[in-house]
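The protein record passed on for reference:
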Amino acid sequence: MAEKSLFNLLDNVLDQLGFSENDIKERICMLDKCMIARTVFARKIQKRDDIDRIFVGSQREGIGLQFINDTDVLQIYMYKSCYCFESNNIDDQKTRPEAWLELDGTRTHPGHYFLKAHGAFSKICLYGDIQHFLIQHFGETFLSAELFMAEKDDMFATSNGYFGKHTVFMPRQGPSWPRSSNTFGKRYLASLLPRTINDSVDYVRGLPCICSTSLTKWSCRERKGDRPSKETMLNVVNLPAFVVPVAQKGTAHTNLQWRLCFILGEMYLLRTLNNTHMKVYVVLKFLAKYELRDVCPEISSFVMKNVLLWQAESTPCNDFRPDTLVMCINKALKYLKECLQKNNLPYYMLPERNLLLNKISRKQRRNVLKKLDHFNVTHFNNSLLNESHFLTNCLTKIGEEIYLGHCISKVNNVQVSFLNTVDLAIYIESMFYKRCFLSCLMYHMWTVVMPMTYTYGLHVLINPLRYHIPLRIGVLESFRRSQLIHTEASVSKPTSYGENF
């Protein structure tokens, strides 16, 4: 009984920090709404409908918190029906447009490709917006990842509004262009909080990719457990993939390499997991961010996500319960340790790709393994709390910070819940054009804060966690609806992309 009570203690602590099933669903649904509204707003401002924006990363997964985790945005460029296809799939030939890009993996490691140009790319007048990204190499035409990333088209860079003038653009990091804001409101909030605010938005650029062969191979491979279900796999297979301009570390021709990723598929899989699965993921992310980052930055949230997905597949769903949370964490860390010892962690969606290849030195590997041994919670006895560095020190150290992020996220979600998607898009557009802080503040107070406080009272600003936001649709339905905007507003897409995204 004492051991079971101790295991439930960690589950309860994570609930209080904002990772209960309802809190996660609430953040997911509100961010889905924000994604649709921001896409409508951006298309109107830029007067173009060939760029889709998708929120990704921990915030879209429901476990990221405002001002604690950065916001990741994937910008998808359609470029007049120019898409990427696998070279060996005859079925895709029926949906290929007149200009298309082939995933050429003959000179790269698994999961990375050159994009070989085919079709009507010679017609400069028709494809002028992508023509200057093309270069000649090996006697063939390829799309340059380096030139693609050099293009600067951020609408805040040319804005005369208050937020545009106070946007700080940071140096490129891998496939992303991060930016943050330096508004008066942010500086004032930062002066009140005991920690540094993280409001960074990382924009990652990508191109849509039809990968039916790779996804079919993923869905048909042999599995030990009962996850994912056949229905889930069918839905994942029908979602598009993307290529982003980032090369395999330690290889040649990095300016030509693109990485294949299945962001929407991963997101959908996470939304089919139960709350204990997600809490294992939360703890793994805590360990990566607060304990392992100084030792080895390459052990990222993405690495931990893959550890979780492999564990969710190989372990029966009923084994992930609140009273087995600590054991599930221990099992996940054991799997990570085995992968480090072999220097091979397969990418869940494409097992041929090794996520650790050329990324971790021998010294880093030894230090991480030593840390993981320190987190060993195999022996569950009365001295567990003394033996577990995470339970005694890590949660105590970061608990206040995480709880603060939970409160701020709750206030933001309550505000978003008062506007429907159309009104939210109008609100974002209006704020974009406001010229001064006072004008932004007055509009925000009139449009959002006053209706919110009229409904809930001023206590919603003092103790927001006591208020429940009604969710009219489920998390998976929210995911499906959040993708409809791209189908309805986009033109000239291949059938296999438009129908499923």
User: Anything to note?
Assistant: The mean pLDDT is 81. DSSP finds 21 helices and 14 strands in the chain.
